[in-house]
Amino acid sequence: MIVFGAALVGAIVGGMTARNRGGNKLDIAQYAASFGIAFALLGLIATVVIHRLAI
């Protein structure tokens, strides 16, 4: 669940970043996708670390 939540938060942050910088729809989509992927990767690493520490 951490991965999905992080991907969603990343997509929102990326979309807002592109909109604040004056990007068009494709810029917003690209930022949302790239931030979503990056945040999901960080969420995956956090999930693995948490899982390894809990066992």
TrEMBL record:
<keyword id="KW-0012">Acyltransferase</keyword>
<keyword id="KW-1133">Transmembrane helix</keyword>
<keyword id="KW-0808">Transferase</keyword>
<protein>
    <submittedName>
        <fullName>Apolipoprotein acyltransferase</fullName>
    </submittedName>
</protein>
<keyword id="KW-0472">Membrane</keyword>
<dbReference type="GO" id="GO:0016746">
    <property type="term" value="F:acyltransferase activity"/>
</dbReference>
<feature type="transmembrane region" description="Helical">
    <location>
        <begin position="28"/>
        <end position="50"/>
    </location>
</feature>
<keyword id="KW-0812">Transmembrane</keyword>
